[in-house]
Amino acid sequence: MDLGAIRHRLQSDSYVLAEPFAFLSLWARNVRGAGDPHFGRLARERIELGIAAELAVLGWEKRRVGHEWSDRVVHVSAQYPGACFDIQSVTLDGPRTEPRFIEVKAVAPDSFEFHWSRAEVEAAQLLDVRYFLYLVPIQPAGVPDVSAIELIQNPYSAVYENPQGWHKAEADIVCRKRKSPVS
Q1: Environment class of residue 167 by beta-carbon count within 10 Å: exposed (0-12), middle (13-18) or buried (19+)?
Q2: pLDDT above 60 for 45
């Protein structure tokens, strides 16, 4: 405070960095980037947890549909990582089957928080009751808890359009320059 780098805001009773020091807060947030070995390790761990959750669901799904239909359970994201669902399976309705499109999310067991891409949300909206979210809690040792999987059919309605049941925060901002009107 003696240097004038920190100011006290009376209205909010908070402290902020004063100009010309404000950039330091951004610098501090960004110094742990791609060059930081922890950053790369955390990114790899997140990918590994996602794959472990997908493989757990793959096995769970094959058991759910039984031997007769297990060949219809396909790990789509293993071949197409950018797909808007991870597993294609079937919903059994007596002698009939319906396609089932599954997006797997590895989640913390206390919050069930997950990130849902725009493409996944659009797929959920288009596929309606044929689209499922399988939320797989990850135990502290990094092991998927298949006994606590939460299945959500039609998550566009059940999650995305359900503010009473789910908190939703839109995270991405997309900007595009407008074309100048032709005169």
Answers
A1: exposed
A2: yes
Question: What does the domain layout of the chain look like in residue ranges?
Answer: 48-160
Q: If you search the block for the tokens 């009939």, which residue do you land on? A: 96
Instruction: Report CA-CA distances (Å) from 51 to 2, 33, 121, 142.
Output: 51, 23, 20, 11
Q: Is 158 exposed, middle or buried (0-12, 13-18, 19+ CB in 10 A)?
A: middle
Task: Give the pLDDT confidence of 4-42 residue by residue, as tens digits.
Answer: 777 777 887 777 767 776 666 656 655 555 556 666 777
In order, the DSSP letters of 76-109 are: HHHH-TT-S-SEEEEEEETTEEEEEEEEEEEE-T
Distance CA 27, CA 33 (A): 11
pLDDT of 84 > 80? The answer is yes
- Tell me the C-alpha to C-alpha distance, in Å, between residue 105 and each of 36, 56, 168: 26, 11, 16
Q: Residues with Cβ < 8 Å from 133, sequence gap 6 or more? A: 102, 103, 105, 114, 124, 150, 151, 152, 155, 159
Token pair for 66: 């039984």
* Mean of pLDDT values over 97-102: 96
Q: Report residue 107: phi and psi, to 5°.
A: -130, 160
Q: How far is 103 from 88, CA to CA, in rounded Å?
A: 9
- Pairwise CA distance, residues 61 & 76, whole Å: 13
